[in-house]
């Protein structure tokens, strides 16, 4: 079990987790190549904060998230990863991430992305 990270603040939430919650959070929040111990950990979602708010951004954000989560599939911790985008408002994107863990349990995560 790992200490659970709060996806809103990035701090420890006080509890523990035996799910992929921390792995998903770290892969989406960390800029790709931004962690010294693993240059493949992270995503390119941070690049969208400089992109224009167009309809194509939804598709690009989903692709960036799926790419960031691919290592979970490769190392066998997840069977399936799915990402959908919603628009809660102008300049904001909400990614709805669904991960089927190796044990068969399906987990749902949300990740907010700021767009210029």
Offer a few descriptive terms:
alpha+beta; 2 helices; 116 residues; globular; 5 strands
Word description of this protein:
The chain is α+β, with helices and mostly antiparallel strands and 116 residues long. It has helices spanning 21-29, 56-74, and strands spanning 2-5, 12-17, 78-89, 92-101, 106-114. It has a three-stranded antiparallel β-sheet, with helices on one face. Strand 3 and strand 4 form a beta hairpin. The protein is globular. InterPro entries: Phage_Mu_Gp46 (IPR010877). This is Phage GP46 family protein. It holds the Pfam family GP46.
Provide a concise account of the structure shown.
With 116 residues, this protein is of the alpha+beta class. It has two helices and five strands, in the order E-E-H-H-E-E-E. A three-stranded antiparallel sheet has the order 3-4-5, covered by helices on one side. A two-stranded antiparallel sheet has the order 1-2.
- Structural classification: alpha+beta
What is the percent of helical residues? Answer: 10-25%
What strand line-up does the widest sheet have?
3-4-5
Give, in order, the helices and strands.
EEHHEEE
Distance between termini?
Answer: 37 Å
Query: What's the overall geometry?
Result: globular
Mean pLDDT: 90
| Total number of strands | 5
> The biggest beta sheet, please?
3 strands, antiparallel
- Which stretches are low in confidence, meaning pLDDT under 50 for 5 or more residues running? none
Query: How many individual helices?
Result: 2
Radius of gyration: 14 Å
β-strand amount: 35-45%
InterPro entries: Phage_Mu_Gp46
Pfam families: GP46
Protein name: Phage GP46 family protein
């Amino acid at each position: 079990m790992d200490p659970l990270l709060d996806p809103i603040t990035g701090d420890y939430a006080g509890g523990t987790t035996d799910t992929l919650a921390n792995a998903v959070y770290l892969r989406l929040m960390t800029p790709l190549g931004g962690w010294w111990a693993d240059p493949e950990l992270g995503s390119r979602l941070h690049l969208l904060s400089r992109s224009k708010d167009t309809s194509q951004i939804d598709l690009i954000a989903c692709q960036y998230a799926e790419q960031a989560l691919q290592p979970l599939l490769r190392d066998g911790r997840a069977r399936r990863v799915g990402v959908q985008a919603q628009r809660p408002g102008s300049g904001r994107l909400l990614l709805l991430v669904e991960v089927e863990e190796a044990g068969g349990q399906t987990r749902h995560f949300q990740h907010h992305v700021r767009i210029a």
